[in-house]
Amino acid sequence: MLSREENLLLCQTGPETPMGKLMRRYWLPALLSEELVEVDGEPLQVRLLGENFVAFRDTNGRVGFLDENCPHRGASLAYARNEECGLRCIYHGWKVDADGQVVDMPTEPATSTFRNRLRHPAYPTREAGDVVWVYLGPPEHEPTFPDWEWTRAPRAQRGASKIFEDCNYAQGVEGTIDSAHSDYLHSSDIRGRPRDHAPRLEAVDTLYGFKYAAVRAPDVDADLYKYVRLTLFVAPFYAFIPPFRQGRLASDSDTPGEVAVQQAFVPIDDEHTWFFTFAYNRKGPLPAYWRQHAAEFGIEHGHVGRPVRNRANKHLQDRAAMRAGNWSGVTGINPQDLTVAEGMGPIVDRSREHLGATDVAIIRYRRRMLQAAGALAAGQEPPGLGVFAGLRTDERVVPIDTPWQDVPTFGEVTA
Ligand code: FES
Ligand SMILES: [Fe+2]
Question: Regarding the domain with residue range 37-141, which homologous superfamily does it belong to in the CATH classification?
């Protein structure tokens, strides 16, 4: 349970809020590179952390990321002409480049030096893993660019997707760090889990956030072994969930190899979120299923439109399928997660909840992030600004007296 004030502290990410200031200290995934393919192509409106921006690919192929409103009188630069390394506003022709320099003011006298005194807010971008990343924070605090393992994988082995989520980002985060729900919400889609549906959860803080284990009794030899499923929370909104292997998904009988999954819940504003999935097959090409999983799950890619399933149509929950044995009546793991997250409403009232024994990671997450937001205001650096190339997670059976913290590759930072 959180007080109403704590709940707002967790959920609000506008520029003046403590959590918004914290999030602005990280590189953020903003777009898929495929949304900005064309050099000098159409600029995109991008809303992030409650602010409006325009993104464009300039003549040199570089991605510019600017405040949306023109420095002159505020016309939207999403309507601008994208030409010769800059956006030229269609209202009076002022032109701004990717560095925020006002490079032309055709309505001013030729002798004017006005434009040299102006600087339009522009933000550094990078492209990695076919994702456009942006840093919105104070320039003097720009952190090292994160070296996620999947961004260095060959293109054929990785994929990124992005789905619009009609609720606050923390509802997404709290769904993905909640190991207990899989046995219920996803029970018609995920196979191979033990019958023990009341996992014991243990969490430890790490440099990047925290890691936690959900420990279950295996179906056989429960006196000798334990089944450990490890999930990592990486500040400010990422989760690493155990890799998918062949046979794990009921609907995906031929996933070859080992598909590692990193998820990100990026606030659009306080009531909307981009849910990114970064998938990486360490052992071969990424199956098409993962490459297009958003579409296959019946969700349109975010930049194309809103998900087909939403609160207005009760996420197309199929009662006949439920009568026939399906647990949730919603097809696909992502749609199931979105259904419960969005079904709570835009910002769930955490002062009215009743947390149970399996909510250990939820409690840890809130405490860690509220603490980090408070500490930043007191001058302390945020967690997870390092370069974490070797983050690994897994689920496996280990001897019952092995501390899960000691199992190799469980949350290790190897580089
Ligand atoms: S408002 Fe953009 S040039 Fe005037
Ligand atoms: Fe889930």
Answer: Rieske [2Fe-2S] iron-sulphur domain (2.102.10.10)
- What is the position in ligand 1's atom list of the atom closest to the CA of 107? 3
Looking up tokens 């959900």 gives 214
Query: Distance, CA 187 to ligand 2 centroid (Å)?
Result: 10
What is the Rg, in whole angstroms, of the alpha carbon atoms belonging to the chain? Answer: 23
pLDDT in tens, 134-166: 999 999 999 999 989 899 999 999 999 888 899
What's the 221 CA to ligand 2 centre distance in angstroms?
Answer: 28
What CATH number does the domain located at 149-406 have? 3.90.380
**Cβ(97)–Cβ(118) below 8 Å:** no
pTM over 0.85: yes
Residue nearest to atom 3 of ligand 1 (CA): 92
More confident residue, 268 or 392: 268
Domain with CATH 2.102.10.10 in the chain: 37-141
d(Cα 267, Cα 127) in Å, to the nearest integer?
A: 19
Q: Which of 79, 91, 108, 114 to mutate to test the pocket of ligand 1 (most atoms within 8 A of CB)?
A: 91
Closest C-alpha to 142, from 382, 364, 317 = 382
All CATH 3.90.380 domain ranges of the chain, comma separated, are: 149-406
Burial of 113 (0-12, 13-18, 19+ CB in 10 A): exposed
